[in-house]
Amino acid sequence: MDWSVGNYERTAEQLMPAAEALIEVAAPREGEHVVDVGCGTGNAALLAAARGARVTGVDPAARLLGVARERAAADALEAEFVDGDAASIPLADGEADAVLSVFGVIFAPDPAAAVAEMARVCAPGGRIVLTGWIPEGAISQMARISREAVTSALGTPPTGAPFPWHEREALAELLEPHGFSLTSEERSISFSGESPAEYLDAESGHPLAVAARAVLEPRGEGEALRQRMLEVLEAGNEDPQGFRVTSRYVITAASRASAPPNATR
């Protein structure tokens, strides 16, 4: 998946409220080293930098890293943006006071490896704070039917259910062995437009939509998927005069003990 294609900047702008909510929970302090995993265009990273944190944004999409650097320069903020992903963070062990991810690590193909890597770079007494979608509502349905259409077109075996990044118990199984204790809280975010059709057309630049069209359109299946997604958005529309849907998500905060697990005196 190449997140540099299309126009992820539009999506990033819509997700800014979630980044703001995560930063309030993470509460980065001046001088702390904050790592934003899957930073994209830099939403959370730049909010942390504005609080005086020393920030490293990590993402595999070179173009988005460039956008993040431009935003930092425009706002006169100090932040470093480097190539990497959730399973390969280019930092030394225990180098980060806070590891953040706003709907970034949830795309990691190996959740256990990604969590272990985030734990590796997190210092004793540090914290990991991330967001995960609750898989319900129109936007979630739209993503699911697109994923299923691509899988069917490629003839690949259906995959199991995605890892439940929104479930505290599932995350606890991965994080508690690394010495973390978890808390979670539910939030919501709204997506809006002039109409369901206008919103869907505007979302055609999302990297996932671009990737799906590359598979489906040569097979003549692109328009059928668009109609199915439009039906989902129309059914879930909360604003008869335009378009609005609400998606729920969870912010999970994992705090690490000052001493590593199983430490001896």
Notes on the protein architecture:
There is one protein chain. The protein is an alpha/beta fold. It has one domain (about 10-255): Vaccinia Virus protein VP39 (Rossmann fold), CATH 3.40.50. Helix content is about 40%, strand content about 25%. It contains ten helices and seven strands. It has helices spanning about 10-15, 15-25, 45-50, 60-75, 110-120, 135-155, 170-175, 195-200, 205-215, 220-235; strands at about 35, 55-60, 80-85, 95-100, 120-135, 180-195, 245-255. A seven-stranded mixed β-sheet has the order 3-2-1-4-5-7-6, sandwiched between helices.
What is the fold's blueprint, element by element?
Elements: H1 8-14, H2 16-26, E1 33-37, H3 43-50, E2 54-59, H4 62-74, E3 80-83, E4 96-102, H5 111-121, E5 122-133, H6 137-154, H7 168-175, E6 180-193, H8 196-202, H9 207-216, H10 222-236, E7 243-256
Parallel strand pairs: 1-2, 1-4, 2-3, 4-5
Antiparallel strand pairs: 5-7, 6-7
Helix pairs in contact: 2-3, 6-9, 6-10
